[in-house]
């Protein structure tokens, strides 16, 4: 039998029908839904008189719109101040109730960001096909699953048929060799990968992340990397199953147990690319050379090591690229040649589906411990990815460390990652953010986002500007 | 699904690379639970000089005179000419809904982000990939001639200029058929119900844990 990649195996195992015209029907095992991209899909189902094919394959939670202050959260949906957000969250509740879909509602302790609760609850498992009406669904690929974001019409299609009409993507291997330096995190790895291949480098591909760095990386770190596969243009990112995967999955509420566990493990251990499997594109990166990263522009590929200087558009020969650098510098109010460490931050956001899991919060707390947020910083906040992450952090006393540093400790949700709720940047403000997109206006009208790791965000909060977290005294990584 | 056969219309520019979906339709407008009405907020942050709010009457907002869609020469445009990696970022289908609601029927670019590309077809909006050099040339011609129009012919898979140049584009057969005939692709898939059930039965036998129901236990 021909050697297969991990993606080939996942694709083959879910192929319901290959059509003559090159399209295929792919079976979907798990469908996660949230309030923003589903109301029109439910409406479509109702209008056509259709029912979900397999209600018990779905799991819902509101995340994008939910407020993150305790005051506003206390009263549940009724307490949401923004009337339009309230309608959207209420609509999700109503739709889930009407169709019998399990939902972690706004004040359920398991509520959280869709991509955090999937793996955390065991609803998302190795070997599955997983979709959600959100581009960061690729996060789940860390489990050795084929996971990708879909649009609302596709949400409706999967609800009605349990299938997706898809075309097979090409295979790309991103191999990061060696060992990461002290203070260098999975977020830095993925930003460095995007800097290398560009925001469209993965378009049309499913990316498998391999190499020594990934073999030793924690599951949560793998999720951070797969999460941003879409920022490299790839709809799906994935990592092969190994013992680290199994240790993570075991005992989760929706994971198989007893005999089924043993049977599942046997199948999951096949979820890796065979020796000699062919990739259409291979990118090899030396992990030991990666440094803490800071994005300076308005696209995730506009990112540099913290010790670097802002690029000079005059050095760029491609006119379209030169113009985008010029436009980015103007939007970000930065000058060519300026050291990255000179950039002052007005706000700090630690959260989002990229970096809101317990390890991220531990990393931020380790830097904040015994320190204070700089007086020039208007606001710094940590927004845990789920109610369970929040509870775990509190059990470890991390919330106390975080608050003592002058950082707000919030309720779970997407929050300032896309600013659909009250958490947003003011016009012209710079933000050290652990989220995944630095697009114009993403975190608020006129807001200026710099993507960094949780440790780098915490360090910027303390210094009031970007600094290399490795230079803070007493950092024991 | 809305059908698409041939469109002849004015071409408007979106002359920058990596136009993301936040730019096409900013997040505050995603709170709507409807599919329509997004056109007035298409490219909101570029089009207007103030910060837009949902459910707002846009007719009195200060507009950015430098933005092409606000200029007289591009009024009534139905074809958007764009740069590479158009539609990157989030999966929000609100982006094609907004383009469609504004009146665009086709977008031409050297490359598109995957999810956006896919979402377009579901809404009768045709994304067309032409080479970078052809796109460069079309930009030049468009800037030169006020009222520059193109004809997009899906059946022939061609983009034609008034002066007679023709450019072929690729589109996969299934999507083309769905668009030409305005087919309901859910209905089409449901015609394969037997194949889906057969797959489920075989899979349930070999990997039963995949069919454990998500239940409401806390
Ligand atoms: S945290 Fe941000 S990127 Fe992640 S799902 Fe929410 S809005 Fe999307």
UniProtKB/TrEMBL annotation, chain A:
<comment type="pathway">
    <text>Amino-acid biosynthesis; L-leucine biosynthesis; L-leucine from 3-methyl-2-oxobutanoate: step 2/4.</text>
</comment>
<dbReference type="GO" id="GO:0009098">
    <property type="term" value="P:L-leucine biosynthetic process"/>
</dbReference>
<protein>
    <recommendedName>
        <fullName>3-isopropylmalate dehydratase large subunit</fullName>
        <ecNumber>4.2.1.33</ecNumber>
    </recommendedName>
</protein>
<comment type="function">
    <text>Catalyzes the isomerization between 2-isopropylmalate and 3-isopropylmalate, via the formation of 2-isopropylmaleate.</text>
</comment>
<dbReference type="Pfam" id="PF00330">
    <property type="entry name" value="Aconitase"/>
</dbReference>
<feature type="binding site">
    <location>
        <position position="417"/>
    </location>
    <ligand>
        <name>[4Fe-4S] cluster</name>
    </ligand>
</feature>
<keyword id="KW-0479">Metal-binding</keyword>
<keyword id="KW-0100">Branched-chain amino acid biosynthesis</keyword>
<dbReference type="InterPro" id="IPR018136">
    <property type="entry name" value="Aconitase_4Fe-4S_BS"/>
</dbReference>
<dbReference type="InterPro" id="IPR004430">
    <property type="entry name" value="3-IsopropMal_deHydase_lsu"/>
</dbReference>
<dbReference type="InterPro" id="IPR033941">
    <property type="entry name" value="IPMI_cat"/>
</dbReference>
<feature type="binding site">
    <location>
        <position position="414"/>
    </location>
    <ligand>
        <name>[4Fe-4S] cluster</name>
    </ligand>
</feature>
<keyword id="KW-0456">Lyase</keyword>
<feature type="domain" description="Aconitase/3-isopropylmalate dehydratase large subunit alpha/beta/alpha">
    <location>
        <begin position="8"/>
        <end position="464"/>
    </location>
</feature>
<keyword id="KW-0028">Amino-acid biosynthesis</keyword>
<feature type="binding site">
    <location>
        <position position="353"/>
    </location>
    <ligand>
        <name>[4Fe-4S] cluster</name>
    </ligand>
</feature>
<dbReference type="InterPro" id="IPR001030">
    <property type="entry name" value="Acoase/IPM_deHydtase_lsu_aba"/>
</dbReference>
<dbReference type="InterPro" id="IPR036008">
    <property type="entry name" value="Aconitase_4Fe-4S_dom"/>
</dbReference>
<dbReference type="GO" id="GO:0003861">
    <property type="term" value="F:3-isopropylmalate dehydratase activity"/>
</dbReference>
<keyword id="KW-0004">4Fe-4S</keyword>
<keyword id="KW-0432">Leucine biosynthesis</keyword>
<dbReference type="GO" id="GO:0046872">
    <property type="term" value="F:metal ion binding"/>
</dbReference>
Automatic annotation (TrEMBL), chain B:
<protein>
    <recommendedName>
        <fullName>3-isopropylmalate dehydratase small subunit</fullName>
        <ecNumber>4.2.1.33</ecNumber>
    </recommendedName>
</protein>
<dbReference type="InterPro" id="IPR050075">
    <property type="entry name" value="LeuD"/>
</dbReference>
<dbReference type="GO" id="GO:0009098">
    <property type="term" value="P:L-leucine biosynthetic process"/>
</dbReference>
<dbReference type="InterPro" id="IPR015928">
    <property type="entry name" value="Aconitase/3IPM_dehydase_swvl"/>
</dbReference>
<comment type="function">
    <text>Catalyzes the isomerization between 2-isopropylmalate and 3-isopropylmalate, via the formation of 2-isopropylmaleate.</text>
</comment>
<dbReference type="InterPro" id="IPR004431">
    <property type="entry name" value="3-IsopropMal_deHydase_ssu"/>
</dbReference>
<comment type="subunit">
    <text>Heterodimer of LeuC and LeuD.</text>
</comment>
<dbReference type="InterPro" id="IPR000573">
    <property type="entry name" value="AconitaseA/IPMdHydase_ssu_swvl"/>
</dbReference>
<dbReference type="Pfam" id="PF00694">
    <property type="entry name" value="Aconitase_C"/>
</dbReference>
<comment type="pathway">
    <text>Amino-acid biosynthesis; L-leucine biosynthesis; L-leucine from 3-methyl-2-oxobutanoate: step 2/4.</text>
</comment>
<comment type="similarity">
    <text>Belongs to the LeuD family. LeuD type 1 subfamily.</text>
</comment>
<keyword id="KW-0100">Branched-chain amino acid biosynthesis</keyword>
<keyword id="KW-0456">Lyase</keyword>
<feature type="domain" description="Aconitase A/isopropylmalate dehydratase small subunit swivel">
    <location>
        <begin position="1"/>
        <end position="132"/>
    </location>
</feature>
<dbReference type="GO" id="GO:0003861">
    <property type="term" value="F:3-isopropylmalate dehydratase activity"/>
</dbReference>
<keyword id="KW-0028">Amino-acid biosynthesis</keyword>
<dbReference type="InterPro" id="IPR033940">
    <property type="entry name" value="IPMI_Swivel"/>
</dbReference>
<keyword id="KW-0432">Leucine biosynthesis</keyword>
<dbReference type="GO" id="GO:0009316">
    <property type="term" value="C:3-isopropylmalate dehydratase complex"/>
</dbReference>
